[in-house]
Amino acid sequence: MKSFFLNALRSLGLTPSENQTDDAEEGHAALAQQDYALALKKFKRAATQGDAAAQIQVGHLFREGIGTKKNLVKAVHWYRLAALQRNVTAQFTLGVIYNNGEGIMQDFIEAVHWYQLAALQGNANAQSNLGLMYEKGQGVLQDNTEALNWYRRAADQGHVVAQFNMGLMHEKGESVTQNFAEALKWYRLAALQGHGEAQGNLGVMYAKGEGVPQDYKSAHMWFNIAAAAGDSVATQNRDAMSKNMDAQQISDAQKMARDWQAGRLLPK
């Protein structure tokens, strides 16, 4: 429980800060001892003094029901206090809660509001989610140009989902000139981070020769890699591709996939 909780906090950027109060410091010490009730008490004391990081900690404890009963209304209250201090983690978290309707009424307009504030501060997760809101027309008017804008900002920071969505938009020509080479570039970046659907889409592009010379072995390799990650469509595509290849080509493609997984091959 301890390691899971502390890892979750680190993923939200909630590690102890140099400017923390004594109460916040004692809160972190209580977390390390797995005394979550005491941690909540200490963090609440610091949070009531305006410590934004402590406010997020309290919000997270209520959100997860750790050291107290789960209470999303109280979690939102504490996250909001931190978000109003321009804390980007709190802003993004509020966006997620309203987007998903976690324990409160789903509200896409409110989600967009908080995503946008976090996105403008450079948060890649918020930028990617904001792009999706614009693409779907949730909480805002549907606008693929704005979607592309926010996806690009996140993708340039290495956000894997945004990179994949950039690939999709260039492949389909949504609010941008259809460009298979550009789609291939973004799919490859996402694929190299382990994005299964991007890996499968790369296989399709190599199979069809879209944005790259047709290459059955590379197509088979990417289908194989995506299939190993559980992509059933990639499994079907790999098996169908095999029917157009001889035994040596299949063997070569399988070796390429093994080398890629072992880090010995970085596909061009």
Topology (elements, then pairings):
Layout: H1 2-11, H2 22-32, H3 36-48, H4 52-64, H5 72-83, H6 88-100, H7 108-120, H8 124-136, H9 144-155, H10 160-172, H11 180-191, H12 196-208, H13 216-228, H14 232-242, H15 247-261
Write down how many β-strands occur, each being a DSSP E stretch of 2 or more residues.
0
CATH superfamily annotation of one domain: Tetratricopeptide repeat domain
> Which oligomerization state do the chains in this entry correspond to?
single chain
Q: Regions with pLDDT < 50 over 5+ consecutive residues?
A: 1-19
Q: Kindly provide the radius of gyration, computed on alpha-carbon positions and rounded to a whole number of angstroms.
A: 23 Å
CATH class of one domain, please? Mainly Alpha
Instruction: Give the name of the CATH architecture of one domain.
Output: Alpha Horseshoe
**Terminal Cα separation, in Å?**
42 Å
Mean pLDDT: 89
Number of helices: 15
Shape estimate:
elongated
Order of helices and strands: HHHHHHHHHHHHHHH
Helix content: 55-70%
Q: What fraction of the residues are assigned to beta strands by DSSP?
A: under 5%
Largest beta-sheet characterization: none
Secondary structure class reads mainly alpha
